[in-house]
Amino acid sequence: MKPYFLIIALAGSGAAYGSELEATSTQLTTSPASSDLNAIRQQIDQMRAEYEARLQHLEQRLAHAEQQAAKSEQLQEELEETVEELTLSPADSQTGSRPSDFNPSIGVVMVGTAQRIGSSVDGFEIPGFALGEETGLGEEGFAIGESDFTLTGSIDDKFYGSMTLAVTKDEGVILEEAYLQTLSLGGGFTIKAGRFFSSIGYMNEKHLHTDDFSGRPLPYRAMLGNQYGDDGLQLSWLAPTDIYWQLDMELFRGDEFPAGGATHRGMGSWALSSHWGGDIGDSHSWQTGLSFLNADVDERPTGEETEELFTGDSQLTIADVIYKWAPGGNANKQSLKLQAEYFWRQEDGAFTSFDDNRLAYDSDQNGWYVEGVYKFMPKWRIGLRHSQVDADSLGAAFVNTSLNRQSHRPQQNSLMLDWTNSEFSRIRLQYNRDKSMPEAVDIWTLQYIMSLGAHAAHSY
Predict the structure, then answer these.
(1) Which ranges of 356-460 would DSSP assign to H, the alpha helix?
(2) 327-375 tens-digit pLDDT
(3) Which of 16, 38, 112, 312 has its CA at 20 to 30 Å from residue 460's CA atom?
(4) Residue 278: which CATH number?
(5) Does 460 reside within a domain?
(6) What does pTM read for this prediction?
(7) Contact 416, 427 (CB under 8 A)
């Protein structure tokens, strides 16, 4: 309000100044001693015009100030209403919740493919590896892929919850994830409990539909059955450092591949992982990590149809590195992403073949992949990936088992082109030259990925 008082005071001073001018004019007109009355009258008229111009300017400024004040008042009222909506009401403050807390976000992701496999494949295998389920090449022709149904939301001011159901035509509805997570432990600590994907490696905890290629690279398929998730508990710590540093410690039931049997009273596997990352200027960023998974295995089956079983210890180490570039940090028009992971697994125990022959088993296996994805214009990306795995040669006793490497080094090369209309829709064309088995196979895949409803932000 002080500027208004100043303007009014100036206006008042101007009015008084005008009265003095008029009085002076009257005195000069009636004074017989004046010899140049016309010149003085002209000066007085000029002063009066200047005064009126100043007064008009002040009135315009006052009107403008009043308009701005009205707009500010309206904006303040709108802000107050918004704050009121976001603030807990007295009734809600007793329970520490908002009305929206009990309305979870709902999202659906639909995936479908049309696939052409160059030659008939009679069963799928990766020589030298006892595989988990769902690690094959996929179905030929039209097929509905795995669709995800997700509910997420705050439970209250202390906990967050998420549940994802995977719907497939062969297995029906599968509980993929169902976990709660703390929101306010402090000190950078977070606890997650329930069923969830492990944070080992770079891709493991990400849902398949967020991948840049159709199908996981060979090391994930051969050593993790695409993805390791289980019932368990996770403690995470985000360090208060200048660069990003997160440490995760996990304890799992140990039922899912590559574990099995839920040994140690349902605490059969554990994992440690650490990831670091940061920015290099405005256009570059990086992340690297090191992970370890230890599983005590009790009669882990191979695939879906064979009767091969493994009992023993399985230890997997993963190193990952990721680099991203986008001009000025804006990836809307152009970007580049490079990522690579290296896997090393040691397994030691007893392997029972399909003819009930129990064999002493001790093997080292390794694998790696490297991929790059380049967005060359808005909505369009192109990508290239190479992946391969290798296993020890175990000798004549394993000739008739899935662990016979057949002097073959499995590998796969993939080329993809995709069009992303928005964060909710993507169409992808991909070509794979698959040499997982001794006979190479050419695979063409046309895939769509569509999201409905709430869509969670993707991690780095």
Answers:
(1) none
(2) 999 999 999 999 999 999 999 999 998 888 899 999 999 999 999 999 9
(3) 112
(4) 2.40.160.10
(5) no
(6) 0.78
(7) no
pLDDT at 33: 52
Strand partners, 410: none
Structure tokens at 363: 């093997």
Question: Looking at the structure, do residues 180 and 72 belong to the same domain, yes or no?
Answer: no
Q: How far apart are CA 195 and CA 232, in angstroms?
A: 6
How many whole angstroms separate alpha carbon 13 and alpha carbon 33?
A: 31
* Domain shared by 334 and 399, yes or no: yes
Give the closest residue to 336 by CA, choosing from 344, 347, 327: 327
On whether residue 111 sits in a domain, the answer given is: yes
Q: By mean pLDDT, which of 6-10, 76-80, 168-172 is the weakest?
A: 6-10
Contact 297, 259 (CB under 8 A): yes
Secondary element (H or E) of residue 240: none
Cβ burial, residue 125 (10 Å; 0-12/13-18/19+): buried
Taking 90 as the threshold, does the pLDDT of residue 436 lie above it? yes
How many other CB atoms are there within 10 angstroms of residue 27's CB atom?
10
Number of domains in the chain: 2
Q: Which two tokens stand for residue 133?
A: 């389920």
- Cβ(444)–Cβ(417) below 8 Å: no
Return all residues near 98 (Cβ < 8 A) that are at least 6 apart: 88, 92
Beta pairing partners, 260: 297
CA 425/CA 211 separation, integer angstroms = 14
Helix axes 2-30, 37-86, angle to 10 degrees: 170
Domain membership of residue 168 (yes or no) is: yes
pLDDT at 139: 84
Task: Look up the domain containing 21 and give its range.
Answer: 2-27+43-84
